[in-house]
Specification:
The protein has one domain: Jelly Rolls. It starts with 14 loop residues before the first strand and ends with a strand. Strands 1, 2, 4, 7 and 9 form a five-stranded antiparallel beta sheet that branches. It has no helices and nine strands. A hairpin with a 2-residue loop joins β5 and β6. By secondary structure, the chain is an all-beta fold.
Amino acid sequence: MATAPKITPIREVENILAFRTKVGAETVRGGETKELGTVEVARFDKIRLVCDERIGSTCNVLVRLTIMEGNELVAFLDTVMLTPHAQLTRVYDVPGTKLNVAIDGIGSSSTQGSVDVLIYGQL
């Protein structure tokens, strides 16, 4: 007597835009730090960071992702250095429940960087 093969339901992967800088990118002067906001990540299996330093930037921009517990900054998940006109994509296992996103302008105060930061969550 033959048995039917086991059928495993296929779970479709869904990607959701969980965070994005304001439209047109965020600008930061050299030596300046800006906190861009926080993003809830607890419901995702993985997250994808997408960064793009825009044309016209004249300094490097450091993007910082910090793990949070409640309102407390706990530890860096990652720091990413972008040079003018650079792009980067990285994928992370979800590190906790919430992330803080911030940028630092690296250079003299007469320079500025313009960066777009997006975080996609994968269900």
